[in-house]
From TrEMBL:
The keyword Manganese does not apply. It is found in: Membrane. Gene3D superfamilies: Multidrug efflux transporter AcrB transmembrane domain (1.20.1640.10). One of its GO terms (biological process) is protein transport. It is a multi-pass membrane protein. SUPFAM superfamilies: Multidrug efflux transporter AcrB transmembrane domain (SSF82866). This is Protein export membrane protein. Pfam families: MMPL. Residues 215-334, 637-753 form the SSD domain. GO terms for cellular component: plasma membrane. The chain crosses the membrane at residues 190-209, 216-236, 242-260, 290-313, 319-342, 405-425, 605-624, 631-652, 658-679, 691-718, 730-753. InterPro entries: MMPL_dom, SecD/SecF_arch_bac, SSD. Keywords: Cell membrane, Membrane, Protein transport, Translocation, Transmembrane, Transmembrane helix, Transport.
Length: 782
């Protein structure tokens, strides 16, 4: 206990080093060309994030409003990380400076109206109509989430201090603001849902695990395992991502199963008449190896997640591996030692506390009514009938086992056929590719973002074309950029605009591109750095920004991918000048590859998980029956899961796409623990039928408790406001229920049939060997 307490302190210390990762490195591998193109070539060179301050009111062209917008501009421009601020007020100041030499917003309402009417092209992107005005604040594209959050908070403070006139609504929105709100909402939602899950687990432990003393103990045991997991994450540098946050309900479901198995066996040994010490040794001897084997097979199922091309799925697998090991350690040491201590106190208790509970559970202590100690000369061991009266769950499971054994052939044939149908149906299950549909549709920040997009009529998503060139001032190159940009806007319906350094050059040169490189270089020197930074870097990198509007929502991922391919074909058709290489990147391209990697590799991950678990079982048992009997039920679960998802019209999303590997790791544990108890009873002298009855009635009760806690825990996720998390919770609940069904309906007749078939084959071989020996002996006599 002292060591455990020390480890808890170290874990809390290490947990402070856990980093929340949400950048490009969580979506694509750092070694991939896509990451290098987007993160290094575009994000760190050309990208800027925009925060939009939108003002709504009856008339946005008044002097009072422009003065307030000017005050906002001046305050926001001082915020660290802000690269530029554009608003109608800033344009008015520039026009006024050019006309009168005064860098301020005109004091006359008439002057403001005249300037806006004289130069409408300067205001059209910022004054959308009579009632909507925008202030566009650019921040560094490479800024971290924390830096972006600080900037947005300062913008909110500045907008309050700018003192906008009454009656105007101020909306702060933009992609960075939306993403920060989504992450914040996800964290709040997950914390609340985990709290609900914990409460539901308490309820189900009261209901299902009431045949033992201290039935709520598995919950703090598994929470200790989670604390250890946080500590290991901090020391090993495993980051926290939006996907890995969903690992903790999985770990609670698996870890509580370990705690329940140890708890159930320890109480069973004590009911059989053993002392605290004897029960502890017997539990470690018989249950710890079985649970360890189940853990190893679970871990092998999770190893298949490492084959994913998406880094956050690999981190998800690392977190699961760390977590199951920590939960096992917490259950083996803290859980069993606590039970040992509680039982010792109960037996030594001079005031009779716990006596009624102990007697109800068939446990006699040193202070029992007859003054006698528990009968330790004839302890009830594996193979004997427990001394306590079977409960409702045990009786129900025995009846169910009898039915499954009676109709074993019918059950196994139907299971096999429906499994094949489910695997076939899984191929036609749609893949959810609309990222907007994965977040709550009633989020205020999302509503504001969509409102802004609708008013701006087609702005938001972009394709970024990066050109590596020998000379950025080559007139032929600029002519090609201009021609290509015009072609894309005119001929591609989902490309609404194209901007590049050419636009700034033409603006400085009366609407034309200079004919010589020297003229272009001179214009480059005159263009303010804040304007040209988005389009040119040094003399070898240029950027063309293609505005694709709301294509992510309109076309979804498949449509974006097709649009990217069309742009690539156009580039091949309209060949750029010699020495120019073209790369298409952007956040939309990253999302395409990420979701493609998540969804298309799910079958391979599941198949690899099956092979790894099978090989692991063969290495551990060196017995084909013991290797196949846990695998076959899980294959049935995978098939049934596809059938249920198809019937309920549930689409795959980035989280549910890994469920095949997850359920293989989680569900195989049930069959392995049941199989271990079955062969333990066989070794104690029981025949096949009696052994499976005994295994189901003892281990099965604990499996019902652990399975029910897992189901109730994941049920909380179904009410999540995030459709992606809700769908993950629903699919997990379905798969865990299916795993429990196959454990109690398919596994008993399957293990008995396979075990008896092996015996029969062994018997035939032995007879053949005896026959050959007798013939050999007869030939020798002759």
């Amino acid at each position: 206990m002292a060591v455990i307490f020390l480890l808890v302190l170290l874990s809390f210390q290490a947990a402070q080093y856990i980093e929340m990762a949400s950048g490009t490195e969580t979506q694509v591998s750092k070694d991939s060309q896509l990451y290098k193109d987007y993160d290094h070539l575009f994000l760190n060179t050309f990208s800027t994030e925009n925060v939009i301050v939108m003002v709504e009111g009856n008339d946005v062209k008044t002097k009072e409003l422009m003065k307030a917008a000017d005050r906002l501009d001046q305050q926001v421009s001082l915020i660290p990380g802000v690269t530029s601020v554009s608003s109608p007020a800033s344009i008015l100041k520039q026009i006024n400076y050019a006309k009168s030499g005064r860098l301020n917003v005109p004091d006359s309402e008439r002057e403001i109206q005249e300037m806006m009417e004289s130069y409408p092209e300067y205001f059209e992107s910022l004054v959308l109509d009579e009632t909507h005005m925008l202030t566009v604040i650019e921040i560094e594209g490479s800024s971290t989430n924390q830096q972006q959050e600080d900037i947005i908070n300062n913008i909110k403070i500045s907008s309050d201090e700018a003192d906008f006139p009454p009656g105007y609504k101020i909306i702060i929105t933009g992609r960075s603001s939306l993403m920060l709100d989504i992450q914040s909402e996800m964290g709040k939602s997950m914390g609340l849902l985990l709290g609900i899950a914990g409460a539901l687990m308490v309820v189900v432990l009261f209901l299902v695990f009431r045949h033992v003393r201290w039935g709520l103990l598995p919950l703090p045991v598994v929470l200790l395992g989670i604390v250890f997991t946080f500590g290991i994450m901090g020391y090993t540098g495993v980051p926290m991502t939006m996907v890995s946050m969903s690992a903790f309900p999985v770990l609670i479901g698996i870890g509580i199963d370990y705690a329940i198995q140890f708890h159930n066996r320890m109480e069973e040994e004590i009911r059989c008449g053993r002392t605290s010490s004897q029960a502890l040794v017997s539990t470690v001897k018989n249950t710890a190896p079985a649970v360890l084997i189940a853990l190893v097979m679970t871990a092998l199922g999770f190893v298949s997640l490492f084959t994913s091309v998406v880094p956050m799925i690999q981190d998800f697998g690392k977190l699961l591996l760390i977590g199951v090991i920590m939960c096992y350690i917490a259950s083996l040491f803290f859980g069993l030692i606590t039970l040992y201590g509680f039982d010792w106190i109960a037996r030594k208790n001079p005031y009779g506390l716990f006596r009624k509970k102990d007697e109800k559970n068939g446990i006699a202590g040193e202070n029992s009514k007859n003054g006698q100690k528990a009968d330790l000369e004839n302890p009830v061991c594996a193979g004997d009938i427990p001394v306590h009266e079977p409960g409702v769950i045990e009786k129900t499971l025995k009846k169910l086992t009898g039915i499954t054994l009676k109709y074993s052939t019918v059950i196994l044939v139907i299971s096999f056929l429906t499994c094949c149908a489910g695997i076939y149906a899984d191929q036609s299950i749609p893949i959810q590719t609309d990222t907007n549909s994965m977040i709550p549709q009633d989020m205020p920040s999302l509503i504001n973002y969509k409102h802004m997009q609708n008013i701006m009529s087609g702005s938001g998503d972009h394709l970024n074309v990066i050109l590596r060139v020998d000379d950025a001032s080559d007139p032929e190159l600029l002519e090609w950029i201009d021609e290509f940009s015009l072609h894309e806007v005119e001929n591609r319906g989902h490309i609404y605009g194209a901007s590049s350094i050419v636009d700034l050059v033409k603006e400085q040169n009366g609407g034309t591109i200079p004919k010589t490189s020297e003229e272009i270089k001179a214009i480059y020197d005159d263009i303010p750095a804040s304007q040209k930074q988005k389009y040119i870097e040094g003399g070898q990198l240029l950027h063309i920004d293609l505005d694709i509007g709301t294509a992510m929502a309109d076309l979804e991922i498949t449509g974006i991918e097709e649009l990217r391919n069309i742009v690539l074909q156009d580039i091949q058709w309209m060949q750029p000048p010699p020495g120019v290489s073209v790369t298409i990147t952007g956040s939309s391209v990253v999302i395409i590859d990420m979701i493609d990697g998540l969804t298309n590799g799910r079958s391979q991950m599941t198949l690899l998980g099956v092979l790894l678990v099978l090989m692991g079982l063969l290495v551990v048992y060196r017995d084909i029956v013991k290797a196949l009997s846990p695998i076959i039920p899980m294959l049935v679960v995978i098939g049934w899961s596809g059938l249920v998802m198809s019937a309920l019209d549930i689409a795959y999303n980035p989280m549910t796409a890994v469920m095949g590997a997850l359920i293989l790791g989680v569900g195989s544990e049930y069959s392995i623990l049941m199989m271990e108890r079955y062969f333990e009873e066989k070794d104690a002298g029981m025949d096949s039928v009696d052994a499976i009855y005994q295994a189901v009635s003892t281990t099965g009760t604990a499996l019902i408790a652990s399975g029910a806690t897992t189901v109730f825990g994941f049920s909380a996720l179904i009410v999540s406001p995030f459709p992606m998390v809700s769908s993950f919770g629903l699919v997990t609940v379905i798969d865990v229920l299916l795993a429990m069904v196959v454990t109690f309906v398919i596994f008993p007749p399957l293990i008995v049939l396979m075990d008896n078939h092996r015996k029969k084959n062994i018997g035939i071989l032995e007879k053949l060997q005896d026959f050959r020996k007798s013939r050999r002996a007869g030939n020798l006599n002759t």
